[in-house]
Specification:
This protein is an alpha/beta fold. It has helices at residues 2-17, 30-41, 47-57, 73-85, 107-119, 136-146, 161-166, and strands at residues 22-29, 58-69, 88-93, 95-96, 102-103, 125-129, 149-154, 169-172. A six-stranded parallel β-sheet has the order 3-2-1-6-7-8, with helices on both faces. The longest helix is centred in the N-terminal third of the chain and has 16 residues, at 2-17. The two termini are 30 Å apart.
């Protein structure tokens, strides 16, 4: 067992030295992921499992989760769990819509942060968790302008086709990524 661990660590160090491993920046539209997994599966997304999947592909250099701020114990526990996994949690005030849904107005903030990350020479892969088609032009732009690889995770029934078409890699959020 020790030899296997030593060999795996050695392979990892070689890949890292040769710059073969991806340098990943992750951006999570928490509201979008919450509502789409709830509406389609009646379950919650497994952020810890996502983190493990991404770590197997490279180094997570940056990880932001964009959420709304509520005075709610469940939300505080959830945000604390995200921080424990490794995400930086960015919060905006809670806005209640007439239909009962909540809005945090994070699209512009996510866009600015993705643009900054794509321009960073230490990052070569941008991972976005969202089904929001508003991000399609952003992904097309950063691929063309900075040559970064783009990856999207979304619930297929509620992910815009334009977003799927704009990304290099699309991963369906299915039962295996849920709690």
């Amino acid at each position: 067992m020790v030899n296997l661990q030593t060999n795996l660590r050695f392979c990892y160090l070689i890949l890292k030295k040769e710059n073969i491993l991806q340098k990943i920046a992750v951006f999570v539209d928490v509201q979008n992921i919450y509502y789409t997994t709830r509406d389609v599966y009646q379950r919650q997304f497994n952020y810890r499992l996502l983190w493990q999947e991404l770590m197997a592909q490279g180094d997570i250099v940056l990880a932001n989760a964009y959420a709304i701020q509520r005075s709610d114990d469940q939300q505080h526990k959830f945000q604390k769990a995200l921080k424990h996994i490794g995400f930086k949690v960015k919060l905006k005030p809670y806005i209640q819509r007439s239909d009962g849904s909540a809005k945090g107005d994070w699209d512009v903030g996510i866009t600015i942060d993705i643009m900054a990350a794509a321009a960073n020479k230490d990052i070569n892969t941008i991972v976005l968790l969202s089904g929001d088609g508003d991000f399609d032009l952003l992904l097309s732009h950063i691929k063309a302008e900075y040559g970064v690889k783009t990856v999207v995770y979304g619930v297929s029934a509620l992910t815009a086709n334009s977003l799927i078409n704009a990304t290099d890699e699309y991963h369906k959020i299915e039962q295996s990524l849920l709690l």
